[in-house]
Amino acid sequence: MHTMTDWPLPFWIAHRGAGKRAPENTLAAFRTGAMHGWRAFECDVKTSADGVPFLLHDDTLLRTAGQPGVAGEQPWSDLSRLDAGSWHSPAFAGEPIPSLDAVAAFVQRNGLALNIEIKPTPGQEEATGVAVGQACLRLWGGAPERLLFSSFRPESLKGASRSAPGVPRGLLLDRLWTGWWDVAQSLGCVAVITNHRLMDAAMVRQLHGAGLRALCYTVNEVEDAQRLLDLGVDGLITDAIDRFAPALGGVEAAVCPPKSGV
């Protein structure tokens, strides 16, 4: 049973590596975020047709790799050769889709924390959770540190709890669907991570009263961050890695005035 003292993440978490500053879910994004002083990162992980965990948000490759088809139905040998950077800007042309192995090596070598959102191909919810859990035990060892699983899909969290019960779990919510509270508790979650518009004082009290952490995504405006700080949330996921400065220390110090033109 996880407790609040087991929490693996700092307060500020960079969304998909570097928000909009680099092509999402790539090693280039992680490097960009780290160069801005970020020490914790969120990313999306699914599995290829041959069972290799890799980073991608969408079900398809069209938006970020310009290719047709469902990503999870293709073998890693094909996925690994795709260009996942040109869509963002010419500077990142040729940037590949990274495997979870590659990202794990980067974050471990640099002492960084990672929130893995399990993002299954439809129909592969529980199996993806199992596979990601198994991969993380292989990559991080039997007692992973600075690692959190999250998912909008309870089945994926269930799968991860089966294969890697020692990795803490958080339920993601984009709406307060009926039964979410019971599901979070039945899955042994240590956190609930909501769209920032859903979080209010009553929800923070409910979560904290049960020993769970309250986190929010994707918080890009200073006013939203300040409201949530005032509520006493435990973490914020943001695209605005150049607007907030977590390296300053202390959550209040991390809220910086927006830069001109941002």
Q: Could you characterize what this model shows?
A:
It is a single chain. The chain is an alpha/beta fold. It has a single domain (4-60, 98-248), classed as Phosphatidylinositol (PI) phosphodiesterase (TIM Barrel). 30% of the residues lie in helices and 17% in strands. The chain contains nine helices and nine strands. It has helices spanning 27-35, 62-65, 76-79, 100-109, 125-140, 154-163, 180-186, 201-209, 222-231, and strands at residues 12-14, 40-47, 53-55, 113-118, 147-151, 169-173, 191-195, 213-217, 235-238. It has a nine-stranded mixed β-sheet. β2 (40-47) and β3 form a beta hairpin. α4 (100-109) packs parallel to α5 (125-140) and α5 packs parallel to α6. The protein is globular and about 50 Å long.
What is the number of beta strands? 9
Please give the alpha-carbon distance between the first and last residues: 43 Å
Could you state the CATH homologous superfamily?
A: Phosphatidylinositol (PI) phosphodiesterase
What's the gyration radius in Å?
A: 17 Å
Topology of this protein?
Elements: E1 12-14, H1 27-35, E2 40-47, E3 53-55, H2 62-65, H3 76-79, H4 100-109, E4 113-118, H5 125-140, E5 147-151, H6 154-163, E6 169-173, H7 180-186, E7 191-195, H8 201-209, E8 213-217, H9 222-231, E9 235-238
Parallel strand pairs: 1-9, 2-4, 4-5, 5-6, 6-7, 7-8, 8-9
Antiparallel strand pairs: 2-3
List keywords for this structure.
30% helix, 9 helices, 262 residues, TIM Barrel, 9 strands
Summarize the structure.
The chain is of the alpha/beta class and 262 residues long. It is built from nine helices and nine strands.
